Amino acid sequence: MSISLGQPRQEPLSPIHRGSNQSGMRAFNERLVLSLVRRHGAIAKSDLARLTGLSAQTVSVIMRSLETDRLILRGKPVRGKVGQPSVPLSLNPDGAYFLGLKIGRRSADFVLADFLGAIRMAAHEAYAWPDPDAITAFVARSANHAAGLLGDNAGRIAGLGVAMPFELWNWAEEVGAPQSEMDRWRDFDIREAIAAQVPWPVYLQNDASAACGAELAFGPHGNLQDFVYFYIGTFAGGGIVLNGSLYTGRFGNAGALGSMPVPDRTGRTVQLIDIASLVVLERRLKSAGIDPSPLWSTEADWSGFRDHAQDWIEGAARGLAYAVAACASVIDFEAALIDGSLPAEIREQLVRATAREMGRLDLQGIAAPQLRAGTIGSIARAIGGASLPLFDKFLIDQNMLMREH
Predict the structure, then answer these.
(1) Predicted confidence band at 137 (pLDDT cuts at 50, 70, 90)?
(2) Residues 257 and 366 both lie in one domain
(3) pLDDT exceeding 90 applies to what percent of the chain?
(4) Is the CB of residue 307 less than 8 Å from the CB of residue 266?
(5) What radius of gyration, in Å, describes the C-alpha atoms of the chain?
(6) Of 15, 203, 205, 231, which sees the most CB atoms within 10 A?
(7) Contacts of 1 (CB under 8 A, 6+ apart)
């Protein structure tokens, strides 16, 4: 779903998409080619040479290397009216695999994703609150199962990415956990604990930023270079994409959109997290004597409390509208994406309601971004974890390139 509140924009040409014919840049050039093949789905060698500025010979060498490594596949030749037939090149789904883990306040998700982002295996574990030892054991079991499913291809697993909220111990009251239990996270190094259980590199990222990375890597937004991303889970959060790359900031907290001050229905200033989080709806349901467990179910059926859900949507949309406007006043984002652990129909309603609320705001001087629904949904944080080794080992990091130049 896409709702345009502003004028369509031309996609700018980016000089950092140009390649180098120097032999010392081979690693970058291979990443560049893989990034372009991922973006276009299937692309001819001649088009790669044109897009990168690399010579046809250099592109041929890169393609042979990537074919040898089983990262790309050659399609059937396509004959044109003149000249040699064009051979489309595409990513090999079995070229690499990635493991992703989402540690949430209510549940954990583990996924095995292939090179295209398709989920080959998924495991889910619900709990009252996150226990570090239980989660480590869950990861070990799930990782062993994933490796067993791949058999001889298990050696193509590139890494395991962990997506989780930072400073979990600060949320004991909100999740209804004993503070003593949540305090265990203060000195617990989850990355080190998992690394002791698996033979692959382990990565760690804030859960909402990781979800944003999943949308960047696997969502249908290849034409977007700059967007702000809102993820509505137990607590609202988000991420930022600048120049086609996930931007996490100096301390890894860029895109902490849940902390953004917004007005509630009474005009009182609160944080977005206080009105757009699922825990807000959970409290309302409990107060009404309604079982809130469907909020955390993988089935995500909200039909039993539609009126309460609609009331929550209206409040959340108001906060999101102010947050989108505030973000757009700082950075000229092309789009604002809204996703979350929500049924698809609820997500669509939330996007439409946010668009209506933005239509009531004074946006003079602000180029309003498109509002779009995210495409990955409740599994986005786990898929985002899986995207961390993908970005690290196979794709170009445009922000890093800009810092180095």
Answers:
(1) very high
(2) yes
(3) 68
(4) no
(5) 22
(6) 231
(7) 348, 351, 352, 372, 373
Does residue 74 sit within a domain? yes
* Main-chain phi, psi angles of 98, to 5 degrees: -140, 140
- Please, what sign has the CA dihedral across residues 274, 279, 282, 287? negative
- At position 386, the amino acid (one-letter code) is A
Q: Do 204 and 392 meet the contact criterion of CB atoms below 8 Å apart?
A: no
Both tokens of 12, joined, read 């700018």
- Amino acid identity of residue 231, one-letter, is Y
pTM: 0.85
191: three-class secondary structure by DSSP: helix
CA 276 distance to own-chain centroid: 19
390 vs 397: CA distance, rounded Å? 11
- Number of domains present in the structure of the chain: 3
Q: Are residues 314 and 361 in the same domain?
A: yes
Of the three residues 38, 69, 91, the one that is the final residue of a domain is 91
Greatest distance between any 2 Cα atoms in the chain: 73
* Residue whose token pair is 């970005």: 391
| Residue 126 and residue 66 share a domain | no
User: Is 10 a domain residue?
Assistant: no
Mean pLDDT of the chain: 88
Of 94, 156, 112, 92, the C-alpha closest to 379 is 112
Q: What is the domain extent for residue 113?
A: 97-205+382-404
Q: Provide the CA 148 distance to its chain's centre, in angstroms.
A: 27
Distance CA 46, CA 80 (A): 13
